[in-house]
């Protein structure tokens, strides 16, 4: 039972991660793929933040009377990662807009068919 | 109680994730993605990561959703049924997932204070921050001072993303004010937008300069600042928004932020310290740290706000310029 509670966060994170991964590899729509990637990224954020948590700890803002703080280092890493995830999302979506202008579709299967015809 | 909230939020995240897989309307999927992001922001608060929560709410639930909606407006919101069977992807996903779950069995339990991750640098940062940096928010002190190099790289990434979107989508300045005809009639939206704009900008400044003491900082402030102008563009049309804040000014600001950051680093070198060493910026080391952190946060905020607006205008102005 303690194993279940102790690993609950990590297991759910893996389920979320695989949900995103499934969307990326199984769905032909490019926008959906970017959304899948977004879900994958967010699940990684949750994994890191879960590891930073200390039982009974507080947010890492120094205050008198508080002795236990959660680990601030993963917080910094993930803050950075969120900003990078926005950069990748924006670039991915911009590419999709251009692909749509060139091919008239956002469906990967149809893009392959058009490429083979050329 | 904390555990209970944690379990419920993660459960909700899982349900949202499955709904995103099943739904075929991309508009609905985008809304669910925004909810997914907001739920994870709530989870971050429960897990004591308040700075991360603020960032996730502003970037994940806010700007990302706007960009996805702008993309869908230019493409299509129906997802076609895939032509392959989902069998092979399912096998791949389940195998990978099983391997990862096997990997977690060795991990220290959730909330364990003796986990290796808490043993090394974290304790030193928590102990030294009040003495060396003098700001209560340890996340800010690590982000802006101890790991200032990384954050400089980060701002450069954002700047590069802005350039990338500009290169891909270009920009079109609108002389006429193009706006969906329906929005003009909604008086409530226009009045609220006008009332909220100064409040949003003020709040962004608060987040920027209060980042030393509470959750916040340049990244979050920049995004919130940009949201104010995006709201204005939505309510009053793109042409008006571009007149209010011209494209060339944005290009200049995006570069200026990175340069302010780098200049603070070089100023430290000129005063006899190392690159990005803030102690030498003032007579008293702690005051120097305060000054350094404030200046680089300002640089980060300026770049992030400008790049967000460049990206947003890039997407939306292309949409309005038709299929040229």
User: Which chains have the largest interface?
Assistant: A-B, 82 and 100 residues
Which ranges of chain B are low-confidence, i.e. pLDDT below 50, for 5 or more consecutive residues? none
Envelope shape of chain A: elongated
Helical fraction of chain B: over 70%
Note the total helix count of chain A. Answer: 4
Oligomer: heterodimer
Silhouette of chain B: globular
The CATH C-level name of chain A is Mainly Alpha
SSE layout and pairings?
The complex is a heterodimer of chains A (118) and B (324).
Chain A: H1 2-26, H2 30-52, H3 72-103, H4 108-117
Chain B: H1 2-22, H2 26-46, H3 50-74, H4 87-104, H5 121-133, H6 138-146, H7 148-169, H8 181-185, H9 187-209, H10 218-236, H11 238-244, H12 247-270, H13 285-320
Helix pairs in contact in B: 1-2, 2-3, 3-10, 3-13, 5-6, 6-7, 6-13, 7-12, 7-13, 9-10, 10-11, 10-13, 12-13
Can you tag this structure with a few keywords?
heterodimer; A: 118 residues; mainly alpha; Helix Hairpins; 4 helices; 0% strand; elongated; B: 324 residues; Four Helix Bundle (Hemerythrin (Met), subunit A); 75% helix
What does this structure look like?
The complex is a heterodimer of chains A (about 120) and B (about 325). Chain A has a single domain (about 1-55, about 65-115), classed as Helix Hairpins. Helix content of chain A is about 75%, strand content about 0%. Chain A has helices at about 1-25, 30-50, 70-105, 110-115. The longest helix of chain A has about 30 residues, at about 70-105. With about 120 residues, chain A is mainly α. Chain A is built from four helices and no strands. Chain B has helices at about 1-20, 25-45, 50-75, 85-105, 120-135, 140-145, 150-170, 180-185, 185-210, 220-235, 240-245, 245-270, 285-320. In chain B, α10 runs parallel beside α13 (about 285-320). The N and C termini of chain B lie far apart (about 55 Å). Chains A and B meet through α1, α2 and α3 of A and α1, α2, α3, α4 and α5 of B.
């Amino acid at each position: 039972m303690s194993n279940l509670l102790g690993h609950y966060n990590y297991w759910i994170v893996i389920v979320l991660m695989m949900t995103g991964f499934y969307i990326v590899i199984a769905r032909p729509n490019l926008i959906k793929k970017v959304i899948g990637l977004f879900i994958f990224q967010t699940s990684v954020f949750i994994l890191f933040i879960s590891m930073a948590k200390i039982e009974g700890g507080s947010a890492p803002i120094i205050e008198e009377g508080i002795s236990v703080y959660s680990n601030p280092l993963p917080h910094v890493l993930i803050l950075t990662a969120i900003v990078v995830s926005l950069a990748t999302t924006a670039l991915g979506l911009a590419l999709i807009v251009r692909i749509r202008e060139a091919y008239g579709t956002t469906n990967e299967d149809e893009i392959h068919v058009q490429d083979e015809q050329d | 109680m904390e555990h209970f909230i944690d379990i419920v939020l993660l459960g909700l995240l899982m349900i949202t994730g499955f709904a995103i897989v099943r739904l075929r309307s991309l508009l609905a999927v985008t809304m669910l993605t925004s909810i997914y992001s907001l739920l994870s922001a709530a989870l971050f608060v429960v897990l004591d990561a308040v700075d991360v929560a603020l960032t996730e709410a502003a970037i994940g639930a806010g700007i990302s959703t706007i960009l996805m909606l702008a993309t869908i407006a230019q493409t299509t919101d129906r997802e076609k049924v895939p032509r392959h069977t989902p069998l092979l992807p399912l096998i791949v996903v389940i195998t990978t997932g099983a391997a990862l779950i096997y990997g977690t069995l060795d991990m220290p339990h959730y909330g364990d204070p003796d986990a290796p991750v808490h043993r090394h640098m974290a304790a030193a940062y928590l102990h030294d921050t009040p003495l060396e940096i003098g700001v209560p928010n340890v996340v800010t002190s690590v982000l802006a001072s101890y790991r200032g190099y990384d954050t400089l790289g980060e701002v450069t990434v954002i700047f590069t993303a802005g350039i990338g979107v500009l290169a891909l989508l270009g920009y079109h300045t609108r002389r006429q004010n193009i706006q969906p005809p329906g929005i003009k009639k909604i008086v409530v939206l226009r009045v609220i937008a006008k009332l909220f704009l100064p409040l949003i900008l003020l709040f962004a400044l608060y987040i920027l300069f209060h980042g030393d003491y509470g959750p916040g900082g340049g990244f979050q402030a920049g995004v919130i600042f940009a949201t104010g102008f995006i709201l204005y563009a939505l309510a009053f049309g793109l042409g008006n928004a571009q007149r209010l804040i011209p494209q060339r000014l944005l290009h200049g600001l995006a570069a200026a932020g990175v340069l302010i950051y780098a200049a603070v680093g070089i100023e430290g070198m000129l005063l006899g310290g190392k690159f990005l060493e803030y102690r030498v910026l003032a007579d008293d080391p702690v005051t120097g740290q305060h000054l350094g952190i404030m200046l680089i946060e300002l640089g980060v905020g300026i770049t992030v706000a400008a790049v967000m607006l460049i990206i947003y205008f890039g997407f939306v102005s292309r949409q309005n310029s038709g299929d040229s």
